[in-house]
Amino acid sequence: MKLKTKILAGTATLAFLAFAAGSLQAANQVTNLLTITATIQEQGSTNINVHSGVTTVTAPTKFAFNTKQFLALLAQDEHAASNYNSATFPPGAKLVIVVSDSNAPYFCQVVDKNNNFLVDVSNILKFQTNIIFQLYSGKTKNYSFGVGGDPTVTTLHVPTFGFDDSGITNGVGFQCSMVGLMKTTVTYTIVNRSTLVVTTSGRIASFAGAGTNQSTPFLVTGSLNATGRRTFR
Fold first, then answer.
1. 169-186 residue pLDDT tens
2. Which of 14, 27, 53, 86 is the most buried (most CB within 10 A)?
3. What does the pLDDT look like over 34-66, one tens digit per residue?
């Protein structure tokens, strides 16, 4: 694909397709590193005093939950599903979402510290956005006037991020769905008139959601960041 064709095709789409649905084309993939920081409040226990007839429910149990915990659950689930040969990932493993600059689906994957592929986890992790309701801003370049300038597109959208291992036999039993306003910025930088560098940055400053952990209800709040960079020649 010619350089200016890549930019013209991608400028209007990659910003929101940083996590949208559609068919992945390997030649135009951009891998986004995903980091999650969250707090879970789990339903407290119930105690019934048979002598006084008083029922007491304790306050919700609160604990931190981040990318490291997500990776731990994913390793156990993918191992139970026979998709990965260990119940743990190696130190430094990372959670990524791979996307395209065309109308394509995302892939949720785990890579090692050197960015080598370990396992696809799209069977458990789901990231969806409503491509109809999105707000765009930024600048583009009409490349019929020559290659130059750095197009930048910013998109506001409301994706849903879910974890569901209910289809896995002997899985850890964790399901949740989270939603929040995401701001995604994609910058296309021309280097030496022959190289295109695509930089992506997305953030949900505050998300909220709900789920169950081995059938115990919980609420979750937190933030999510995604960053990526890819060079095309």
1. 999 999 999 999 999 998
2. 14
3. 999 999 999 998 999 888 889 999 999 999 999
As given in the structure block, the two tokens for residue 210 are 């709900």
Residue 3 is classified by DSSP as H
CA-CA distances (angstroms) from residue 33 to 172, 177, 226?
24, 20, 5
Q: For residues 48 and 77, give the distance between their C-alpha atoms in angstroms, rounded to a whole number.
A: 35
Determine the Cα–Cα distance for residues 24 and 184; give it in Å rounded to an integer. Answer: 19
**Amino acid, res. 220:** V
Q: Rounded CA gap, 25 and 230, in Å?
A: 14
Q: Which two tokens stand for residue 134?
A: 């999105």
**Alpha-carbon distance values, 232 to 13, 163, 197 (Å):** 17, 32, 6
pTM confidence score: 0.80
Q: Which tokens hold the place of 10?
A: 């991608």
Q: Name residue 223's beta-bridge partners.
A: 37
